[in-house]
Design a protein that fits this description.
11 helices, alpha/beta, single chain, Ssirtuin_cat_dom, seven-stranded parallel β-sheet, SIR2/SIRT2 'Small Domain', NAD+ binding, 260 residues, NAD-dep_sirtuin_deacylases, transferase, 36% helix, three-stranded antiparallel β-sheet, Rossmann fold
Length: 260
């Protein structure tokens, strides 16, 4: 079993912090827990998107989305009312930018679709958005891709179900819906980063969704130390060398040793 650490002032935390300081190739996997402090809700929690709006789960299924105009209209309306443009990265995101600044970041795989790692300043070539991004829209037919605000402005102007301006096809947020295949190159990039790491950190994720959770197992199999940081146990705790349980915004900046 991993070391269970809850106190950032403990000798055990200092030991894990030293692992981070000494690591040369750190690969990160993040989940919803790193973004909740920015005001981004999770999906299934008490205040989750699907909990508060059961219809939202319907427009998360590609077949329902394609076949039911009312679901698309409801989805665009919800997107228009709840924009991400005002959501800002928190100190957890900025800690991972610091790792890149120091030349330690090998890769950053994220299950989140909020785009906050890129907004915070991590380089696109290092960030693998496994489930896509809310910050763009994509045509289902021709794959034309546009910033989401371009499409939402059309919704604001009265287009309840905007179509692709190039081919007339259905538009959707550029996220992976249930029933859609993941992007092979994105997954390959995340796994390559895991297998080349000397330290893997899983932050704010239950590690119950594959293939993203395989970042931990692939890294461990390749000889990396594994740190899990979450507010509750995960499905991959047995692979961890250390489990840091607590508030990510308090623990992660100290672990990374962000300069004052």
């Amino acid at each position: 079993m991993p070391m269970l650490i809850k106190d950032i002032h403990s000798p055990e935390f200092a030991q894990v912090r030293q692992w981070v300081i000494e690591a040369r190739r750190i690969t990160i996997l993040t989940g919803a827990g790193i973004s909740t402090a920015s005001g981004v809700p999770d999906f299934r929690g008490p205040n989750g998107i699907w909990t508060k709006n059961p219809l939202a789960e319907k427009f998360s299924n590609i077949q329902t989305y394609k076949s039911d105009e009312s679901v698309r209209i409801a989805g665009w309306k919800a997107s228009s009312e709840r924009r991400l443009s005002s959501v800002e990265p928190n100190v957890g995101h900025l800690a991972l930018v610091e790792l890149e600044r120091r030349g330690q970041l090998r890769g950053l795989a994220t299950q989140n679709v909020d785009g906050l790692h890129l907004v915070a300043g991590n380089s696109p070539e290092l960030v693998h958005e496994v489930h896509g991004t809310w910050r763009y829209t994509r045509c289902i037919s021709c794959s034309d891709r546009l910033p989401v605000e371009d499409t939402l402005q059309r919704v604001d102007a009265g287009e309840a179900d905007p179509k692709c301006l190039k081919c007339g096809g259905l538009m959707k947020r550029d996220v992976i819906l249930f029933g859609e295949a993941l992007v092979p190159d994105v997954i390959a990039g995340a796994m390559a980063a895991a297998e080349d790491a000397d330290l893997v950190m899983a932050i704010g994720t239950q590690l119950n969704v594959t293939p993203a959770a395989n970042v931990v197992t692939r890294g461990k199999a390749a000889g990396a130390k594994v740190i899990i940081m979450n507010n509750q146990p995960t499905d991959r705790d047995q692979y961890a060398d250390a489990f840091l349980m607590g508030d990510i915004t308090e623990m992660l900046p100290v672990l990374v040793a962000i300069p004052d």
